[in-house]
Design a protein that fits this description.
The protein has 75 residues and is mainly α. Helix content is 77%, strand content 0%. The chain contains 4 helices and no strands. It is extended, with a radius of gyration of 20 Å. It starts with a helix and ends with a helix.
Length: 75
């Protein structure tokens, strides 16, 4: 069976299951292109940034301000 033959079967699943299948398939594409240690490096970076926010070392920008700046730049 090839991918084209499998499509009707996949389409028969409900939306929640199709979303899960899509998510898993997209993640599998990412896995092939990542270098060893990629996920660990990002987890470390996210933990560092989270700690900077919690400690007050850096202050986030409100989402409304970010969207307004993007809209102003590209309007």
């Amino acid at each position: 069976m090839n991918a084209v033959q499998l499509l009707p079967t996949l389409r028969a699943f409900d939306a929640k299951d199709r979303a899960l299948i899509a998510h898993v398939m997209i993640e599998s594409l990412d896995d092939e292109s990542k270098e060893p240690g990629y996920n660990e490096a990002w987890n470390d970076e996210l933990a560092r940034r989270g700690e900077e926010i919690r400690s007050g070392k850096i202050v986030g920008i409100p989402v409304e301000q970010v969207f307004a700046e993007i809209e102003a730049r590209y309007a």
